[in-house]
Amino acid sequence: MPKQNGNACLFWTRPDFKVLLEEAMKMEQHRGLLLSFLAVQLLLMGAFHQSHHLHDLTSFLRLLIQDRSPLQEPLTRMSTPTSARSTLWMSVRMICQTAPSSHPTSRQQLHYAIYVVNQVNNTAFNRGKLRNVGFREAMQEENWDCVFFHDVNLLPEDDRNIYTCDIFPAHVSVAINKFNYKLPYQGYLGGVFALRPIHYLRINGFSNVYWNWDDEDDNIATRVKLSGMLLSRPHLLFGRYHMLEEGQDHSQKQSVWRLGLRAWIHQRWRHDGINSLGYRLLSKERHPLYTNLTVDINFQNPEAPVPNRGIWRLRESF
């Protein structure tokens, strides 16, 4: 039977689990004892259900994040892969709302960091370019061997969906409640996308030319295919996510500009991406749960490869 814990989450309890969270919370003055308790509690528990509302987590999170850096270490020492979760376009409210969803990564004993990338408001939104910025800044801080690009309005519903990288790039969020827990179409690659840095460089990252929520997710799927790599996906029972009301999903949006970009991708993808990225880092703020980056992406890289001019003429015609 599912049992509700103090974070308004429902976990499938282990039959040998004897200690209750309420009892452990009475030992707040003994931080070491509580962390030892959490090392047992935060094991893989399978499917759980989030209530998706803001909670009063102050007393619970205080012991977890006190004096902690944005670089999250496993609560127990085990030999595990390193992993970076790169999350984009996140507000402070959503940081609080998604705090409970950080528990699966803790139970999986991962060494990870969360990067939030925000652009200044003088330009149109460009998610692909922000993801390229997040990748570059994260790799400058540590030699990560796995990177997750994670829409922050998605909360994982099953911690058996392991946040590590496979031998191929992976589309992790294969079952979202908005789409009745199935893929909207076979080529859909939105939500949560994971790959190794060497694979990210092989596909030249995300395109920098998609503004105002267009087709960057389908573009990255095409890049994986053109680079000669396969795409892996977890089982539908494990890759389940709940989409919050915040944020927008424009996966079905159509435009002439979008169709034009699709037509030119074979000529453009090697020159439009991480190797042509230009931006200015305005600030880097380190918080207990994440690192916040503010950037100006309306900045050209003078050393970027020159792409086929046809695509720019196409854009100028609309």
UniProtKB/TrEMBL annotation:
<dbReference type="InterPro" id="IPR027995">
    <property type="entry name" value="Galactosyl_T_N"/>
</dbReference>
<keyword id="KW-0808">Transferase</keyword>
<feature type="domain" description="Galactosyltransferase C-terminal">
    <location>
        <begin position="171"/>
        <end position="245"/>
    </location>
</feature>
<dbReference type="GO" id="GO:0000139">
    <property type="term" value="C:Golgi membrane"/>
</dbReference>
<keyword id="KW-0812">Transmembrane</keyword>
<keyword id="KW-0325">Glycoprotein</keyword>
<keyword id="KW-0333">Golgi apparatus</keyword>
<dbReference type="GO" id="GO:0046872">
    <property type="term" value="F:metal ion binding"/>
</dbReference>
<keyword id="KW-1133">Transmembrane helix</keyword>
<dbReference type="InterPro" id="IPR029044">
    <property type="entry name" value="Nucleotide-diphossugar_trans"/>
</dbReference>
<dbReference type="InterPro" id="IPR003859">
    <property type="entry name" value="Galactosyl_T"/>
</dbReference>
<dbReference type="GO" id="GO:0005975">
    <property type="term" value="P:carbohydrate metabolic process"/>
</dbReference>
<keyword id="KW-0479">Metal-binding</keyword>
<comment type="similarity">
    <text>Belongs to the glycosyltransferase 7 family.</text>
</comment>
<dbReference type="InterPro" id="IPR027791">
    <property type="entry name" value="Galactosyl_T_C"/>
</dbReference>
<comment type="pathway">
    <text>Protein modification; protein glycosylation.</text>
</comment>
<dbReference type="Pfam" id="PF13733">
    <property type="entry name" value="Glyco_transf_7N"/>
</dbReference>
<dbReference type="GO" id="GO:0008378">
    <property type="term" value="F:galactosyltransferase activity"/>
</dbReference>
<feature type="domain" description="Galactosyltransferase N-terminal">
    <location>
        <begin position="106"/>
        <end position="166"/>
    </location>
</feature>
<comment type="function">
    <text>Responsible for the synthesis of complex-type N-linked oligosaccharides in many glycoproteins as well as the carbohydrate moieties of glycolipids.</text>
</comment>
<keyword id="KW-0464">Manganese</keyword>
<keyword id="KW-0735">Signal-anchor</keyword>
<protein>
    <recommendedName>
        <fullName>Beta-1,4-galactosyltransferase</fullName>
        <ecNumber>2.4.1.-</ecNumber>
    </recommendedName>
</protein>
<keyword id="KW-0472">Membrane</keyword>
<keyword id="KW-0328">Glycosyltransferase</keyword>
<dbReference type="GO" id="GO:0032580">
    <property type="term" value="C:Golgi cisterna membrane"/>
</dbReference>
<dbReference type="Pfam" id="PF02709">
    <property type="entry name" value="Glyco_transf_7C"/>
</dbReference>
